[in-house]
Amino acid sequence: MAKKHKHEDHTNHEAWAIPYGDLITLLLAFFVVMYAVSSVNEGKYRVLADSLSTALGGPPKSLKPVQIGDKPDKGPKTDSDFNAVRMKGFPQEGSSIQPHVPGEPAGEEARRSAAADKGMENLRRMANAVQQAMQGLIDQKLVLVRRTDQWLEIEINTDILFASGVAEVATTAAPVLADLAGILGQFPNQLRIEGHTDNVPISTPTFPSNWELSATRAASVVHLFMQAGVDPARMTVIGLGEYHPVADNRSAEGRNRNRRVVVVVMGDAAEQREVVQELPPTLGADAGVVVVPAGTLGSAENEGGAQ
Q1: Burial track 86-106 (b if 16+ CB lie within 10 A, e otherwise)
Q2: What is the dihedral of CA 109, 114, 118, 124, to 10 degrees?
Q3: Measured over all CA atoms, what is the biggest interatomic distance in the chain, rounded to whole angstroms?
Q4: Which helix (H) or strand (E) holds 157?
Q5: Is the pTM of this model over 0.85?
Q6: What's the Cα-to-Cα distance from 103 to each of 109, 113, 240, 262, 271, rounded to whole Å?
Q7: How many CA atoms lie within 13 A of 153 on its CB side?
Q8: Between vectors from CA 29 to CA 27 and to CA 32, what angle results, nearest 5°?
Q9: For residue 291, what is the enclosing H or E element?
Q10: Cα–Cα distance between 110 and 21 in angstroms, integer?
Q11: Sign of torsion, CA 221 226 231 236?
Q12: DSSP H helical segments within the chain, as ranges?
């Protein structure tokens, strides 16, 4: 029987094509992935990564924030800059910004408090200086000094300033007002010069009524203050006539008290002072200076003397 010949295996000379095809496919996939990664918005990717990292409890991986939009970059940041909790109205650690009330400019409250303290100190110093300069007239009850936290009142009886029915300052009174002007001129406080009369009518070509007389007397004091060097921009003239008495006009003594000029020194430019009638004063520690207790001015308006 004839012996079968074993056929030799056919060598596949195209076997290289399979791994080559796999390689090409992998290269294609690689370049597709590279292209896809290159088109990702890096900024958004880093912001997302930092946000996720912070939310999960870890510090952000980037020390420099990614700029999105046209806002200019303000420079490198630190981890503390990213992790600090910023609350509106409260300063950050190391910041020079002071806390303030919402709606009020930063530092405004401190500025107003400092100005109020300085105003009160000026009033105290002026009251003491006026007392020393006019102690004789204070003892004779021709000058009365009242001081509150908001203003200082220097009430001068017109008997030492003007003759009856006259608005020109008497020669003997000029030195008194000059001394007062020398004291007031050392401070920047605003001044109100108020003229008051009694209820006795006046009708002359110069003064048709007590309105004109009271205003002109106040203006005469202002002119003398100006001559003594007080800045006229600080002063205001007010004529109040007979309508704000401090005593009963039915007696000669009461009418004498009502004829007066009051120099009001404001503690602060923003302060306002209403014209009151009778003030219930108490004698303070400084002899001759009347300190009006806080809270009495509102009730004083209802306790005034007879009109």
Answers
A1: eeeeeeeeeeeeeebeeeeee
A2: 80
A3: 173
A4: strand 151-157
A5: no
A6: 11, 17, 40, 39, 22
A7: 21
A8: 110
A9: strand 289-291
A10: 80
A11: positive
A12: 17-38, 42-55, 79-83, 108-133, 135-139, 174-184, 210-227, 252-258, 297-300
Q: Report how far residue 197's alpha carbon sits from residue 101's, in angstroms, rounded to the nearest whole number.
A: 47
Burial class (CB in 10 A: 0-12, 13-18, 19+), 169: buried
Rounded-to-integer distance, Cα 126 and Cα 20, Å: 105
Phi-psi region of 89 (alpha: psi -120 to 50; beta: other; left: phi over 0): left
Taking the C-alpha atoms of residue 72 and residue 7, their distance in angstroms, rounded to an integer, is 80
Q: How far, in Å, CA of 123 to CA of 121, rounded?
A: 5
Give the pLDDT of the chain (307 residues) as one tens digit per residue: 566 666 666 666 677 788 888 889 999 888 888 877 766 666 766 777 777 777 776 555 555 555 555 555 555 555 444 444 444 444 444 444 444 555 555 577 777 777 777 778 888 899 999 999 999 999 998 999 998 888 899 999 998 999 888 999 999 899 999 999 999 999 999 999 999 999 999 999 999 999 999 999 999 999 999 999 999 999 999 999 999 999 999 999 999 999 999 999 988 654 555 554 444 443 343 434 444 433 333 333 333 333 3
List residues bridging with 46 in a β-sheet: none
Amino acid identity for residue 264 in this structure: V
Consecutive H or E run containing 50: helix 42-55
* 64's tokens: 């420099």
C-alpha distances in Å from residue 11, one per residue of 14, 19, 21, 24, 302: 9, 17, 20, 24, 127
Q: From CA 126, how far away is CA 180, in angstroms rounded?
A: 10
The answer to whether residues 251 and 306 touch, using CB atoms and an 8 Å cutoff, is no
Closest by CA to 202, choosing from 174, 171, 229, 164, is 164
Tokens encoding 27: 């290269």
**Model pLDDT, residue 298:** 36
